[in-house]
Write a structure and sequence with these properties.
Elements (H helix, E strand, L loop, with lengths): L1 E7 L5 H12 L7 E7 L6 H11 L3 E6 L5 H11 L4 E4 L11 H10 L4 E6 L7 H17 L8 E8 H9 L7 H7 L4 E6 L13 H15 L2 H31 L6 H33 L7 E4 L25
Bound molecules: uridine-5'-diphosphate and magnesium ion (MG).
Organism: Lacticaseibacillus jixianensis
Keywords: Glycosyltransferase, Membrane, Transferase, Transmembrane, Transmembrane helix
EC number: 2.4.-.-
Amino acid sequence: MLSIVVPCYNEQETVPLLFEAIERLRPQIKPSLEYIFVNDGSTDGTLRELRHLAERERCVRYISFSRHFGKEAALYAGLQAAKGSLVTVMDADLQDPPELLPRMIAMIESTNLDCVGTRRINREGEPRLRSFFARQFYRLINRISSTQMVDGARDYRLMTRQMVDAVLRLSEYNRFSKGLFSWVGFETEYISYPNRERAAGKTSWSFWKLFNYSLDGIVNFSEAPLNIASFVGGLSCLASAVALIFIVVRALIWHNSAAGWPSLVSIILLLGGLQLLSLGIIGRYIGKIFLETKQRPIYIVKETEKSNRPDQPASVMSPIERPDEKHDE
Ligand code: UDP
Ligand code: MG
């Protein structure tokens, strides 16, 4: 069976479009299909659409969160719920072309790949500034992190059960999927395709949301900022020690102590600034540790398709369990 995991946040127009697009491909797809739509606390009619769809079609399942938890949480919930031996993750807005699916399935079945990913070869239709920052982000993260991330790679990918289980074992609260998919390893090959625009609706990522997301990526997958902070601190220590010796020696030999309070003030400001910057960097890591140690669930489910199907037990699946969590006796 193939499970299709779709995170949805305010996608009432695109959910039916996506479903139809995939159904049209059905004859070309050998395994049986299971849809898992994850409603990430949408404020529009997405949940209503999902209820309709699940009532009509047996192969459609959905999970609806109690509030907005973010795409990463939705992906995790979907992967946890997926039962197929192959699992694909796909955006609801048709920016991830479903037509690639048959080819991806064929690739996984005919080779011993564990994952077929997709990447867009251009970013047409995207604001220039955003593309620029995106490129810089990939350059930076690949330089400072041992986890490599492919520029332009989408979350859209087909994975084997083995790889999905590996991703699920990473049950951290701060999730950065692009990194997690790469961190677990396995053999991945990428299919390239030209960028597509959304079928309907609008993107929920503002520039600042993306900027923060990229900082999250760096903090989650690299310790370089901490190293840089200590390196700069060490360097300025060394420089001021040299300067101090120079001043003392000069005063001893020529007896002229310079009247230099402007330089003094600027040095104090410089050092103060560096200290605050380093504190900020450390703070970001500590904030992550704080959230992580609280062990909060990644998401909370309010409703699933089972709540509306009378012939199935109404128990809502427990989202709280983290896989592989073993308690010491
Ligand atoms: N999404 C989500 N929660 C969010 C933001 C987005 O579940 O907080 C879903 C959204 O419904 C879509 C996918 O993630 O299916 C990608 O979102 P979007 O198209 O807005 O991002 P973009 O393609 O512009 O990067
Ligand atoms: Mg999109």
